[in-house]
Amino acid sequence: MSISLTGRRPKGVLFDLDNTLYDREAAFDRWLIWFLDEVLKLEGLEERAALTAEVAAMDARGYGSKRAIFQRLRQRYPAPPGMPAPSVEIFYDQFFTQMRVEPETRALLAALRDADIPYGIVTNGSRIQARKITEMGFDKGTDCVFVSGLVGWDKPAGAIFEMAARKLDLPPSEILFVGDHPHNDIWGAREAGMRTAWLHRGQTWPAETCGAPPEIVLDRVEDLIPLFA
Q1: Contact in structure between 158 and 165 (CB atoms under 8 Å)
Q2: How many Å apart are CA 220 and CA 190, to the nearest integer?
Q3: Ramachandran angles phi, psi of 88, nearest 5°
Q4: What is the DSSP letter of 184?
Q5: Which of 1, 63, 197, 202 is the most exposed place for a label (fewest CB within 10 A)?
Q6: Cα separation values, 130 from 26, 100, 183, Å
Q7: Measured distance CA(123)–CA(211) in Å, rounded
Q8: What is the pLDDT of residues 110-137, one digit of tens each?
Q9: One Pfam family, short name please (predicted)?
Q10: Domains of the chain by range and CATH?
């Protein structure tokens, strides 16, 4: 993809986490395969396909309730005597082993560091998000990390974007926000005065709810590398 910006190159970059800095959907798919194989030990193709579709729908790209998922799983597949029932805590312990940071994403972050472009992460969620950031090593390149559950503001509230801009010591207009969620990431960042790059992940831009499209539409987050190389 050819990427161009109108005006000056941004002086700072902020990223969403899930499905932006790493492929959260691919990690979830790997976890689900592990769960079907190692925990439920399902062999029937039809049952596997039906359960995969049901769990993916309940997960809703990470926005669904994990507790609801495991409540449903425990109803359908009670744990044998002496075995722990599937739980959210067990889910995350295994999910962390399925997370991957693509080499191209590492290359983008290296290009930002080489160009002296500060960057940070702004994500909705709980302490689990902070643990993800640490597990994947993203905290080693920046101390600008804002997790909504730890700071008291969820995207798209302007306050969390403003806090991150202050941490980068830049006005919002000099910052490019990169994310996959049209409303929480792109609309919210734009309302806070930032420039925006949308990682579409196969979605169509919802103009009826989020207004004008972002300045940049990305097939992959690493498509930004030429801007900063």
Answers
A1: no
A2: 20
A3: -60, -40
A4: I
A5: 202
A6: 20, 16, 22
A7: 22
A8: 999 999 999 999 999 999 999 999 999 9
A9: Hydrolase
A10: 12-23+101-228 (3.40.50.1000), 25-98 (no CATH)
pLDDT tens profile 16-51:
999 999 999 999 999 999 999 988 899 999 999 999
pTM (2 decimals)?
Answer: 0.92
Phi/psi at 173 (5° precision): -65, -15
CA distances from 166 to 53, 105, 172, 186 (A): 42, 25, 9, 19
88 token code pair: 């959210």
| Number of CB atoms found within 10 A of residue 35's CB | 20
